[in-house]
From TrEMBL:
InterPro entries: Glyco_transf_N (IPR058980), UDP_glucos_trans (IPR002213), UDP_glycos_trans_CS (IPR035595)
Molecular-function annotations in GO: glycosyltransferase activity
Enzyme Commission number(s): 2.4.1.-
Family to which the UniProt record says this protein belongs: Belongs to the UDP-glycosyltransferase family.
Domain Glycosyltransferase N-terminal: 20-256
Species this chain originates from: Urochloa decumbens
Keywords from the UniProt entry: Glycosyltransferase, Transferase
Record protein name field: Glycosyltransferase
UniProt-listed SUPFAM superfamilies: UDP-Glycosyltransferase/glycogen phosphorylase (SSF53756)
Keyword Transmembrane helix among UniProt keywords: no
CDD domains according to UniProt: GT1_Gtf-like (cd03784)
């Protein structure tokens, strides 16, 4: 796919390369797209320093081995993560390892302490860094960019639609005087009508003591521009509005997951899979094309046992085939008990259950998959878009409710499951918010033979085709990656 870029990369010596420093937030949903970004930049001729920590590097072992075997110019920099020094358990180096959201402030402060060792590392590098691309949560990287006199671009893992909504919330203090959690809020300056309740807005999530850090994160004035894992053809109106309102350049370089074209690369993304990929693919091969629904809620959502049981009973009642990825954290034994009481036996001919981490892209792109029940995190949403499959939207927190509006109202490639209550990250879900009947009804609507469902499937397929074209040679995102490398390299030469 990046053949011209790869040829350029092979012909460049180290001193001619634009050197990007990538600093992801240590949470799977933030790190995985940045591994894809590293690969794309390297394939297009850049040098990349990918900042990580020992525990996170071991999780990425598959990707690291793949990058080394492919001869990509990516340096994996493993910095000591000061977990214990900041009141975290030893080895707690990723957001999904925190036992309580009350430790999030400690976690973010430990991340900020990486500034000093990172600066020391960069001082020794040749060529010197040309640009830092950091997760928006790493506000402290702005000081490093200033010290080296180089641009800092931010990456927040959102699409353009949600980035614009978040900016308006912050810039206009949209939530400040809203007392009623269920009052519908209008978004001034948004190019199409958008209404959300306060609790469904990104930024409504609160953690004790995080106010100062949040304030620093919101000072987006310190970034030169924004890198987005999306493509112009998907949401041009919102990307252009975001550029106009913020006055910042937006680089759309996605869908970045499409850089993984072979099975091994797809399987190597993220954590180690809980099920053998070959076993999973064999099962899918035995199913009719477009008949299976993939059910997965991302890496940070730990659904309450009673809700998982209700979801399972809905899947069973639908009589339709499914692959179900179950994550229940420390409550998993209760779910395991229920599965063993007969559910797994009853659905064995049409249901595949994966406990823990799954090779999501590999599954989504299989011809047997006809729908995707998702929590609407952007990584999952864009992966569903690339796969060309319609979605059942089941948002939980953060910007997921905004993404739901994009999928259902704008793209018209999704069916709402009808979530009644927000489940905040780190808070235990107390009751069932989606009934088995709602699950069954959504599946029926998605896989229906009727005209509306057929139109939705056609639209989903069309967006899948547009997504692939964007990253192919000459496509909008392909060209943007080359321009990004060129522009950051030129700026570095000018300032140097």
């Amino acid at each position: 796919m990046a053949s011209a870029g790869q040829a350029l990369a092979n012909n460049l010596n180290a001193s001619e390369r634009t050197h990007f420093v990538l600093v992801p937030l240590m949470a799977q949903g933030h790190t995985i797209p940045m591994t894809d970004m590293a690969r794309l930049l390297a394939e297009h001729g850049a040098q990349v320093s990918f900042i990580t920590t020992p525990v996170n590097a071991s999780r990425m072992e598959g990707f690291i081995n793949h990058a080394v075997a492919a001869g990509l110019t990516i340096q994996f920099v493993k910095l000591h993560f000061p977990a214990v020094e900041f009141g975290l358990p030893d080895g707690c180096e990723n957001a999904d390892m925190m036992q309580s959201k009350d430790l999030f402030k400690n976690f973010m402060e430990a991340c900020a302490a990486l500034g000093e060792p990172l600066t020391a590392y960069l001082c020794q590098q040749h060529p010197t860094p040309s640009c830092i691309i950091s997760d928006v949560a790493h506000w402290w990287t702005a000081d490093i960019a200033t010290e080296f006199g180089i641009p800092r671009l931010t990456f927040n893992g959102f699409c353009g639609f949600a980035s614009l909504a978040r900016y308006i919330i912050v810039h206009d203090n949209l939530l400040e005087h809203v007392e009623d959690e269920n009052e519908l809020i209008n978004f001034p300056g948004f190019p199409t009508p958008l209404q959300l309740t306060k609790e469904r807005c990104p930024g409504s999530f609160s953690v004790n003591g995080l106010e100062q850090i949040r304030k620093k994160i919101n000072e987006e004035i310190k970034s030169t521009g924004v890198v987005i894992n999306s493509f112009r053809e998907l949401e041009a109106l919102y990307i252009e509005s975001f550029e106009q309102i913020t006055g910042k350049k937006v680089w759309t370089v996605g869908p970045m997951c499409l850089c993984n074209q072979d099975i091994n690369a797809m399987a190597a993304r993220g954590n180690k899979a809980s099920m053998d990929e070959a076993q999973c693919l064999r099962w899918l091969d035995s199913m009719k094309p477009g008949s299976v629904t993939f059910v997965s809620f991302g890496s940070l959502v730990c659904t309450a046992p009673q809700q998982l049981v209700e979801l399972g009973l809905g899947l069973e009642a639908s009589k339709k085939p499914f692959v179900w990825v179950i994550k229940a954290g420390d409550k998993f034994p209760q779910v395991e008990e229920w599965l063993a009481e007969g559910f797994e036996e009853r659905v064995k001919d049409r249901g595949l259950i994966i406990r823990g981490w799954a090779p999501q892209v590999l599954i989504l792109w299989h011809k047997a998959i006809g729908g995707f029940m998702t929590h609407c995190g952007w990584n999952s949403t864009i992966e569903g878009i690339c796969a060309g499959v319609p979605m059942i939207t089941w948002p939980h927190f953060a910007e997921q409710f905004v993404n739901e509006r994009l999928v259902v109202d704008v793209l018209k490639t999704g069916v709402e499951i009808g979530v009644k209550a927000v489940t905040q990250w780190g808070q235990e879900q107390k009751e069932v918010t989606v009934t088995r009947d709602a699950v069954e009804a959504a599946l029926s609507k998605l896989l229906d033979e009727g005209e509306a469902a057929e139109e939705m499937r056609m639209r989903a397929k069309e967006f899948g085709v547009k997504a692939r074209k964007a990253l192919q040679e000459g496509g909008s995102s392909y060209n943007n990656i080359n321009l990004l490398i060129q522009e950051m390299g030129n700026q570095a030469k000018t300032s140097g």
